[in-house]
Amino acid sequence: MPRVLIADKLSPAAVAIFAERGIEADVKTGLDPAELAGIIGGYDGLAIRSSTRVTADLLAAATRLKVVGRAGIGVDNVDVDAATEHGVVVMNTPFGNSVTTAEHAIAMLLATARQLPAADRSTRAGKWEKSRFVGVELASKTLGIIGCGNIGSIVANRAQGLKMRVIAFDPFLSAERARDLGIEKVDLDELLERADFISLHTPLTEQTRNILSAESLARTRKGVRIVNCARGGLVDEAALAALIESGHVAGAALDVFATEPARESPLFALDDVVVTPHLGASTAEAQEKVALEIAEQMSDYLLKGAIVNALNMPSVTAEEAPRLKPYMLLAEQLGSFAGQLTETGLEGVTIRYAGEVARLNTRPLTQMILKGLLSPLLASVNMVNAPAVARSRDIGVTTVETEDLEGYQTLIAVEVETERGRREVCGTLIHDGRPRVVRIRGIEIEARLADHMLYLRNSDTPGFIGALGGLLGDAGVNIATFHLGRDRPGGDAIAMLEVDGPVPEAVLRRIRALPQVLQVKALAF
To answer: Is residue 348 domain-shared with residue 202, that is, in the same domain?
Structure first.
């Protein structure tokens, strides 16, 4: 039974989902890093929100961990690169709190436009300062959205309901999508120059960090108001405070800060600033929704292999998973076959998907091939970290998909390039859904891969099979299956033997001594 640790507060309904699926879920919140590291080795999954930090040190202790599930969108508290290195899938729930966060951004927009918090404090103090709190209307104003993805597009829709003009900067926003949303796509400089309000809805990356820097903020139009309900670090808070004090920026509303919990900030002393403690996703509906979503996603992965909303793995739906399962085995076996035969530097791999398999989701198949290929050469390689391991070693990976195929309904071909040249192995699925190797080095052969195999390249000369069989018989090695192929009579031949157990090295040396043998290798699958 898989075990999941819930390290941050989640809805009890999430615990119920794990239990219904047959997964043991332990709720242990408020653990310090040392306490968490002390128990994480006993769990297959870790469910968190924003409090628990998943560091490289924690992942090193999580020897059994397969998946980290973040109930929410932001993964600033997860070292995704380290998780990938350790072969741990990182999932989030990017859609569960989209409406809630967008509504909070609109609330902050209204609050800064009408100075509501300052007016509230003043009125509670017994003052009646109507003339002091003169706001601005949103209608007919221009809202500039930085980042127009799930949340940004909802904000755009709500702002249009308030009769605002919406412009957006987002390198990934297509012209067609902008037209569908009824907004104008602009570059960042134009947005800064035109916007009366700017609302940020982009992830925090090295490219977006301080996207509203002192320089960028200085290029905004006088009287602009800034709203940030996305991630801390997108805005230079000190520069923003200085521009508010100078009167260039009329106001700001922030739900997120570069350092959280935010105990102090130059913005806190300013009446023209509205601040909240990262409440963007804090509604009862959103909390429930993301908890249920992450429990379902983690359960599907641990039980079925389905991968949804992963940051370091291609998605595999619950419907795709069973259809891909036999192909995943074929892919791993082909990769492992090629990897076990690689004795010199691996420089590149080309993977061809032909026929029916080309119509499937081939990205996880590619990762499984890389896992099989690299595992015989490197320790701790798995499906998650295999692409990163290949990149780190400058191993080029090329994939080709074609539905055109003769002779087979489906075919996967793995061609590896080493210091000694290129070689290819091809495989297919037969009627019972079991993998078969059908071509090696251009030689046709049909063989299933078993726990213990012998691979031989030899010259096609009379008497070889008898000599090989006699040698193995004398050594007490029992042959379960024997598969042969050759390019032409008297040319190069290949033999694939399934044997009942490991072949001792002394026996391999005797086989290599046969005059017809060009190569012999014991393989395990």
So the answer is: no
